[in-house]
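User: Here's a chain of 188 residues. Predict its fold as tokens.
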Amino acid sequence: MASTSDIRNGLCIRYNNDIYKIVEFLHVKPGKGPAFVRTKLKSVTTGKVIDNTFPSGRKIDDVRVETHKFQYLYNDGEAYHFMNQNDYTQIQLQKSSLDTPELMKEGEVVTIIINSEDNMPLSVEMPASVILEVTHTEPGVKGNTATNATKPATVETGATVNVPLFINEGDKIKIETTKGTYQERIKE
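Assistant: Prediction complete.
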């Protein structure tokens, strides 16, 4: 058993007969009344995100987990296939257990969190950022750069990301995986 002081991003807990991963949390100490922890929890079985508030000091039932490096191989609709980098065993996960499947390209190495009690995969953690090539975007309009103007661009995985006007087809860009936003252009 853990308490609310042990809450951190990525912690897996048992709550309402399901296993949830903590996506965000905030310790709040109001001037009046007791302290509490505001959390955003994502169900590892359904992918549904809920908001919940725990009173400070409350016991929470944490789930013992192991992390392993897996390489993303391919997807066939809703099932995504991964290979363990140590023993080359393969597993498949449903799309709902992935945070940003549209930013994963084949060969990407991800961290998969596995429940150590029953060896069931719980969730997939992407790297902080990925580098993808722009496959389609409209040309920027000359002179339209006075403000932070952006345009939609399609990357090699099929995802659409808003990018600055100077990005062209064939450019490689760095994308932050947690928000799915453009970070910078990569020079070769």
